Amino acid sequence: MTGKVKTIAVLTARPGKLDMLRDLLEELIEPSRAEPGNLAYDLWVDPAEPGRFVLDELYVDFPAVEAHHATPHFQIYLARIPSLAERCVWTLDEVVVA
Length: 98
Fold this sequence. Notes:
By secondary structure, the chain is an alpha+beta fold. The chain has helices at 18-33, 62-69, 72-84, and strands at residues 5-13, 38-46, 49-59, 85-93. The model has no long low-confidence stretch (mean pLDDT 96).
């Protein structure tokens, strides 16, 4: 597939881990946005469930996603996230995007 790639990750804090999860997710924002293939990297929180976060990421193409996954900051996140949150991730190909 060619074209932009969207990644959406929903992370729900494990009991007692909310602050640590939020800190980890916030640490990802600046270095991820600085990656050459990144078009957007945004962190959202569910006001109805403050322990549920959504990472909304947009990349120029799939190689940019792979490059993101190879970065040191993503590797740190990947190593730490299992103890902090339940995680669901979707990687989506562009169909019709404004």
